[in-house]
Amino acid sequence: MQRVPRRFMFVTVLLTGLTAVAASVWAQIADNQSGGLFGQGPGEEVVLVAAQFTAPADGQPGQLFVTATIKPGWHIYSITQPPGGPLATKIKLNDSASFRLLGEFQVSPAPVKKREPAFDNMIVESHDGRVVWSAPIEFASGVDPAALKIEGQLNVQPCDPNNCLPPRDFPFTAVLKPGVGQPGEGPYLQQPLTAGQQSDTPAFDPNTLQADDAQLKKTPLIAALAMGLVGGLILNLMPCVLPVIGLKVLSFVQQAGQSRREAFVLNVWYSLGLMSVFLLLAVLAVTLGMGWGQLFTYKEFNIALVAVVFAMALSLLGVWDIPIPGFVGSGKAVQLAEKEGAGGAFAKGVLTTILATPCSAPFLASALFWTASQPPAAAYAVFLSAGLGMASPYLLIGAFPELTSFLPKPGAWMDTFKQVMGFGLFIPVVWVLTFLPIPHVIPTVALLFALWFAVWLIGRIPVTASFNRKTVSWATAIAVVVVSWFFSFGWLAGEMEYRYERALQAHSGSQSKYWRAFTRAAMDEAIAAQDTVMVDFTADWCATCKTLEKLVLDTDETRGAIDAGGVATFLADWTHAEPEVTATLELLGSKQVPVLAIFPAGKPNPPLVLRGFYTQRMLLDALKKAGPSKGSAE
User: Fold this and answer.
1) Which of 208, 415, 454, 564 has the smallest count of CB within 10 Å of its CB?
2) Closest CA to 426 of 346, 315, 350
3) Which CATH architecture has domain 47-180?
4) Alpha carbon distances (Å) from 616 to 216, 231, 536, 627
5) Is the pLDDT of residue 28 over 70?
6) Mean pLDDT score, 452-474
7) 552 in Cβ contact with 587 (< 8 Å)
8) Model pTM?
9) Average pLDDT, the chain
């Protein structure tokens, strides 16, 4: 009996599987068509479409309105959905000489925007509930609007959390309906209020954010500089910085035997490295509008930072020597007692400041918020004042080395202390991994192992080795890291994203009792229902945010106040710079987290906003001032 080749068996199994899938899909389509293509059964549509238009009045053109009502649990995509992902909604009008559109269709409410892993993390814009598209319309001379019918089709693709239905054209016929289409009338959604408008239904109006913010923006420059100085000083005590401060303590010991001038110069270099990062952050804030800590919203920056800190930790553990003159690396205690180089001091200042940016110290948040409404020169001055505040202890010790007299003399203990600091640097490595996108954690760990092997190769090179041998070792190490990068963030990242998507589908629908996922539509709905609304703008990379969650937000006192007042609570996760969260933060006048916004029931304008670090008492007082919900918060 002839043996069947494995390749033939594989092709046979593959074709059989594809045939079964195709049959299943065809059966599903046939079943959908027999019971209403867009329904769950006969006559049960997922999307209902209606259209009407108004006549010109008071010198203003008429308006054409197309309304889609979407069944709960389903959604459609926006007309502005970028290509390459889900199918965008399209509105097409039948050709007619009786009218013409004067502009593009506008939508209310705005679509919900979020990153979708299934489409390579592109931005997906979707609508649920009821959505209205409107466009100005002009009628031809002699046309009676009352006798006119405007025909067209709305092409949409409805989806639920598990699957999507095929795209379909919904024909509509719009007729004149005087008065319909005005805000709050007929089947249309309430349009957003502008400043000065009154309504019985409360709505959040960003234009009324003036009370505390206006007062803060009037703060004189000298006061803002003082806040930046104090905030920068306190940054040295933040948990983000502590693992690196140990390196500076080691350098203080090294400087003990140097002249006062040499010690001062090295601390100046450290401070220059520190302040260079503040200057860079000021440039990003002025030119790109980036807020404090916003670099941590980019996974590429986080991965690069993890690699740098990990390589430094391996150097402190004696695996290799960082090629920066005077940087504390491998070697015996006698080598550690050598002079610290200017390059090493500068590099440590840079690293210390970068690791400090996820923390927001008291006074610092207010000072940086103040810069958002000021000229560039004032913004630069405040950022540099914060840098000077953070650098001040080191400049003081450099000027008066006797302040370090309590430290022990250089000796063999320094080698042990250096290695302990090396293990301490693994803390920020693990910490950054906690807020990387989950599918990228394993690829990053794989990259770190490759980096470990690469620096081990470099560390094995004797000091007396020839130039050619050193070149070959460095080239091999670099090649290992480059190949690992493409492997880790190519195939491996794709595989992890696939597994993560399957896990999300298996566990979809779960949410916290106290904190619902934030969307602007859900927030506006709760405000309109006259609920007191509290929104926590946070990020996984923000150490201050995590501290506030443990000490202030997720406590029995806060939960009791939420329950007693029927407060609607939302968690706005800014870890990966979700566009809708960013836009709402900017409406609140902030470009950094933490921010806690409380919208009082029935009077959401202006909201009560807590920025930066706040206490349990401050939060409870704000909730008491806002009052309980008047609607029905869940």
Assistant:
1) 564
2) 315
3) Sandwich (2.60)
4) 22, 20, 14, 17
5) no
6) 89
7) no
8) 0.55
9) 78
